[in-house]
Every structure is written in structure tokens, then in C-alpha cells.
């Protein structure tokens, strides 16, 4: 398995897609029930293959992720050959994960307690796996509005 297995809730949401996936594997509903009972390892493998297909489809569409903690923001953009990250560090008691803290940051971007950094990193052999690792480490998929705003501000 390349990524991670979907949760029970995710499988329930993708029930129709999973049925279609099984159909492409020429597995009927009855055969699926038999597989689960008699060859659970094969059924597990099918779940893993489907999970990887779903993740691959999602990751192909991801262009931005962000990781926000109390005093740090890491905003990632995925370009064709590398990822670009904007880092924002806030020294002091401000917690940007709260509405008040985030509003403070918006109004005080040029405050001396706010530090901007940026960098570029080439992808490993697998761009989507790089994206997945960021998501697994707590980054959230976004539309990139915050990244684009900050990128224009500092560049």
C-alpha cells in the first residue's frame, strides 16, 4: 500500500465508487461477500488498492496545503518541479489558531514579532507521496488563498 487505507466513513461515502471499482475487477456483490469470508487477505488487498486509487486521484488535484499551529504558519504551493513554502513565525503570546489571533496577524503583518521565510524544495521521486506526507503530518488541503496573499505580500 502506497498511502493509507480509507476510513470506514470514507468507504461509506465512496460506496458507489467502490462497487464500480469491484466491477472493473469483475467481482460481483456475491463474490465480494465470499471473498471477505473465505479469503480476507484478498479482500484486504482490494480495499488497499481502492484506497490508493482514491488517494492518487485526490493528490493529483492538490495544489496547496497549509499547516498552522499557535505561532507558526507553513503555506505550501506545489509547482511542476518543486514545492514552495512560505513560513510565518509569530514571537509572543499570539495564537493564530484562534479568530482573535488570526485577526491580529492580518492587522500586524509588518510587526517586528512577525518573521517571514520562504524556500523551495525539489520533489522526491514521487510528487504525490511528498504531498501525502505533508497531509499525514497535519497539513490541510486548501485552495491557496492565504498562500497567494502572502506570496504577493513578500515577493
UniProtKB/TrEMBL annotation:
Pfam families for the chain: DUF6495
Protein name: Histidyl-tRNA synthetase
Domain of life: Bacteria
Organism whose genome encodes this protein: Olleya marilimosa
